[in-house]
Design brief:
Layout lengths: L1 E2 L8 H6 L6 E4 L2 E4 L6 H18 L5 E4 L3 E3 L9 E2 L3 E4 L9 E3 L4 E5 L5 H5 L1 H9 L3 E6 L4 E8 L2 E8 L3 E3 L7 E3 H5 L2
Parallel strand pairs: 5-8, 9-10
Antiparallel strand pairs: 1-3, 2-3, 4-7, 5-6, 7-9, 10-11, 11-12, 13-14
């Protein structure tokens, strides 16, 4: 994920005018090109996480959504931050407008790749924390770990899990993700 080297400031309205041939994220008015394609490991991990969350949420009011799907984190103010997390969970239907999530989802999951790891661990971490995303998971397919960050008093508290764990999803009472299934044992 590389920042476009420009001096201009963009908003969601500008973002909507860009070509669909390339995927972009917009963070604090700065566009970041998204790396095309992803590895087999990334897709396998994403699929397993989505599957487990989808099964848990069946018949419940929360929804799990996979990328690409726009999340407008500050739509009510500057509307200059649009991200496309790998997976998100939204428990307030009013935040879903059919093409995006308007406001902070309850859970965001980013799956690391060499091209996105630094951005996911720093810039996005701070943006999600500031926007009030209640839980942010950083999943490392290579290291077979999950850093689960839960928002408390405006700051993330991190708990790490390995492939041997069943990780609780704090924003979904009674939900646990079997990481052995996610990482393939």
């Amino acid at each position: 994920m590389e920042a476009l080297q420009i001096e201009e400031y963009y908003t969601y309205a500008d973002y909507c005018d860009w070509s669909d041939e390339e995927r972009w994220e917009l963070i604090d008015g700065v566009p970041y090109s998204m790396v095309p394609g992803s590895s087999q490991a990334h897709q396998t991990v994403s699929g397993s996480l989505f599957y487990q969350l989808y099964n848990y949420l069946e018949g419940k009011p929360c929804k799990v959504i996979a990328a690409p799907f726009d999340v407008r984190l500050n739509a009510s103010t500057y509307d200059d931050t649009v991200v496309q997390p790998d997976i998100l969970v939204v428990c307030d239907d009013d935040k879903l407008d059919g093409k995006s999530c308007v406001g902070a989802p309850d859970l965001i999951i980013e799956i690391l790749s060499p091209a996105t790891a630094l951005k996911d661990k720093t810039i996005k971490f701070n943006v999600y924390q500031e926007a009030g995303v209640r839980e942010y998971w950083i999943v490392d397919p290579e290291g077979k770990t999950v850093s689960a960050n839960t928002l408390e008093n405006g700051r993330y508290n991190d708990v790490s899990y390995t492939a041997a764990d069943k990780a609780p999803v704090h924003v979904l009472e009674g939900c646990f993700v079997d990481l052995e299934k996610v990482f393939g044992g």
